[in-house]
Amino acid sequence: MKSSLFPWFEQSWSELSLNNMPHAVLLHGQTGIGKMEFALYLAKALLCESTEHQKPCCSCEACHWFDTGNHPDFLGIVPETMVSSLPHEHMEGSDSLEDKPKRGKKKSDDDSEKADKKASSFIKVEQIREALEGINTTPHRGRQRVVLINPVEALQAVSANTLLKTLEEPPASTLFILLSDRLDRILPTIRSRCRLIALPRPHKEQALAWLSNQVQLAGIKKSSADIDKALSESGGSVMDSLAQLLGVDDREDTSQATDFLLGALAQAGQVNWLTAAEQIYKAPMPDLLITLERWIFDLLSQQQSGQIRYYPSRQIDIEKCAKLARPNKVAGFWRTLLDARRHELHALANRVQIEALLIRYQELYKD
Asked: Got the DSSP string for 52-100?
């Protein structure tokens, strides 16, 4: 894992006191800015056994075990789709310590069957129960145990209630680090039992400089315009921008669907909602809603201030649509999209949802 913080988090880190931490912190902020890396850095620092002032030291035995995913007092709980974000061995046999502790992951007889199933994007109640069943015991090393859960909004209802019961009566030796992209999806009772820490996204100039440096280090040639476009269309999510620029984005490729959607939206009141829905409804609903949300944000911003944030490469289309659309209707549609985002993971028919939204979008251009 990273041995240093991203530069845009240095101020937030300086405001933390490792010796005066609450029993639970909730790190929140925009998706794709490196919150998980910050959380892992914090967990590693809390478990670091160095006597030096600067933690994590990245050289003690505890730090070594943490980096290889074998620290007995660290529990990372994420959806199956995010397992690779946790510390793990980079190469089998890279650690020669024979007495290295192994975190107990129970094997089931149907592991081979599970491998064939699509990875879940939710945190299952079994994960929470298995992880929390042993936290009332004394930590294996040091004075505390760290439990990291990312993202909290991926908890299903039963899982969230199980976590809440633990937060209500937290073990003295356990510290929880919770992460969230969307605070509005988290139970207020969970939020109230945590110290909220807002992590900032980098300023555009800082993000562009960092991305340019990372691309150069990777030996990939990208122009300043390419980097600027990737950052703008990701809404300032530097991690997503970097993955796109390096060609290592392991998420489902939805660029074709989102490009088609943007092309349809550019038709303003002439949008063929039926054809558009037919072409894009199989893409993940969160990606479609984010694209719609960013397009409408740019329309509102163009109408109110003449500025475009997400899609400067589509400036001509946005300016045209902004002139034709009724401002009061655009603002109302924006609120509709915000509400749709709150329910984007529900098992509703994508095609029906996107058709309804595109019909509503068409209405923005009518008196």
From this structure: SSSS--S-SHHHHHHHTT--TTEEEE--GGGGGGS---SSTT----TT-
Stretch (H or E) spanning 227: helix 224-233
- CA distances 248 to 225, 244, 245, 316, Å, are 20, 7, 8, 31
The DSSP element (H or E) to which 102 belongs, if any, is none
- How far is 244 from 222, CA to CA, in rounded Å? 11
Taking residue 16's Cβ as centre, other Cβ atoms within 10 Å add up to: 14
What lies within 8 Å, CB to CB, of 160 at 6+ separation is: 152, 187, 190
Coil, strand or helix: which one is 195? strand
User: Is the pLDDT reported for residue 24 higher than 80?
Assistant: yes
Which two three-digit tokens encode residue 152? Answer: 């909290």
Instruction: Quick: pLDDT tens for 110-127.
Output: 444 444 466 777 888 888
> What does the pLDDT read at residue 362?
95
Give the C-alpha separation, 139 to 147, whole Å: 12
Q: Show Cβ contacts of residue 123 under 8 Å, excluding neighbours closer than 6 positions.
A: 77, 78, 79, 149, 154, 155, 156, 159
The model's pTM? 0.75
Question: Please, how many CA atoms are within 13 Å of residue 349, restricted to the half-sphere of its CB?
Answer: 6
Q: By CB neighbour count within 10 A (0-12 exposed, 13-18 middle, 19+ buried), where does 320 fall?
A: middle
DSSP state, 363?
G
- In this model, does residue 306 exceed pLDDT 90? yes
116 Cβ neighbours under 8 A, 6+ residues apart? none
Please report, rounded to a whole number, the percentage of residues in the chain having pLDDT higher than 90.
54
Cα–Cα distances in Å, from 141 out to 47, 71, 96, 173?
9, 9, 20, 11
Q: Mind listing the pLDDT tens digit for each residue in 215-258? A: 999 899 999 999 998 898 888 899 989 988 887 765 556 778 88
Q: Average model confidence (pLDDT) for the chain?
A: 85
In angstroms, the CA 74 to CA 147 distance is: 6
For residue 1, the model assigns a pLDDT of 58
